Structures are given as structure tokens and as C-alpha cells.
Amino acid sequence: MLPEILLYIIVFLYGIVIGSFLNVLIYRVPKKENIAMTRSHCMSCGYQLRWYDLIPLFSFMALGGKCRKCKANISVQYPLIEGLNGVLYLAVVLKYGWSVESVLYCLLFSALLTLSVIDFRTYEIPIGFNLFILALGLIRLVTDLSNWLEYAIGLIAVSLFLYVIYRVSGGVAIGGGDVRLMAATGLLLGWRLNILAFVFGCILGSVIHVLRMRLTKADRVLAMGPYLALGTAIAVMWGNEFLSWYLRVMGF
User: Fold this and answer.
1) Nearest CA to 233 among 50, 107, 81?
2) Dihedral, CA atoms, 174, 180, 181, 186, nearest 10 degrees?
3) Statement: the pTM of the whole predicted model exceeds 0.90
4) CA distances (Å), origin 145, targets 103, 106, 141
5) Which of 28, 114, 182, 247 has its CA 20 to 30 A from that of 77?
6) Hey, where are the domains in the chain?
7) CB within 8 A of 107, min separation 6: which ones?
8) Angle, helices 100-122/176-189, rounded to nearest 10 degrees
9) Would you state the torsion angle of the CA atoms of residues 200, 205, 210, 212, taken in this order, to the nearest 10 degrees?
């Protein structure tokens, strides 16, 4: 029991370390800044952070959420993204065990988390994230070749429908990034779970954005990426159980 608990702790720690890198992507990718060569620094005074300022979660708490030099407040986004990524990694491993699926889904959740924040702020999903998820889908296809048709259909099951809407509306009703996202996730999840992810995403988007418009006066235009990402995450974690329940209720 103890070795297994230690492994779960390692998974969580690995998740928060990756979460720290996700924060770098969230800030730098939209600005097209170098993510490898530019050193991490305070957004207010430019102070270059030391290694002990960059320990996920712990540095934020040790510094009281303030820059070591200028004492400006550090965005709460940093610990939130780090902690959430760690929790997501732990949840995936608890669900799927020590498997290839767990690795692929952990990486998927990191990509979804990052693109969701970027899309929410900029109304754009950088193509690199969709290509990354597509690469995960190709790995899934290779490791499960006996079910290749499931993934091949998943590539177009939702994305083709969205592409038609995109062309007809001239990109007003849906964005090209959303189309590519559902193609990539379809190759990774297969057509059943991807359709379910899309349905969940549309329901969540409709409900949550209406509430946001009424409570926070949010604009009518919404970034669909975060809702599709959330729908995808729900499908990964509970989609198969939902489909089994639905088919049982319908008498199939």
C-alpha cells in the first residue's frame, strides 16, 4: 500500500511540475515569445526568478503570493494551473491505472487546460496544441490497431460537421481552431466518446455562457474551446459509463 501511495504522490508532483510549464505556455504562446530561451521573470519589475522561486505551489506559498523583489502580487493563476494539472494527472491514473492510456490522457488534459485559458483570453486556439493532440491520437491508433476504424471515424465524425458550419457561416458560427480540436480529439478518443464530448461541450457552453452574460455582463461572443475541452475531459473520465447507462435505459 505504501509504495502505491508514494507513486500517486510522484504522479501529483510530476503534474504540478508540468503545470508550471503550462503557465509559461499560457503567457508566452499568445505573445509569440520564446518558451525555451527567455528566463522566467516578474511580470511587474522584470526580476529574473531564481530556481527556488520556481518550485511549483510551494514557492507561491513561501513568498505569500508576492514578488521577492518588488512585492507586486503574483497572479493566482500560477498555483491554480499547477495544482489543477496535478489533480488531473492523479485522477487519470486512479481511473486508468498504470497504462499507455493514462500517459496519453494526462498529456491530453495538460493540452486542454492550456488551450482553454488561451482561447478564453484571445478567442484563438494556437494550432500547435491541436497538432500535439493529433500526435497523441496517432500514438493511440498505433497502440490499438485492432480498433483503428473507431479512431478513423472519430477523426471526421464531429469535425466534418463543424467544418460545414464553419464554411457556410464564414467562420462566424464556429472557429477553425474548434474544428481542428474536435478532429484531433476524435482520433484520440474514437467517434463515440468524441460525439459525447461535443454534446457535453455544447450543453456546458450554452448554460455557463448564458449565466456569465446575466451575472457578469459577458459578451455574447464566446470562446468555445474551453467548453469543448471540458466536455472532452468529462467524456474521458466518465463517457463509457454514461454510454453504458444510456444504452441500458434505452433497452439496447
Assistant:
1) 107
2) 120
3) yes
4) 18, 21, 6
5) 182
6) 1-98, 124-252
7) 132, 136
8) 170
9) 120
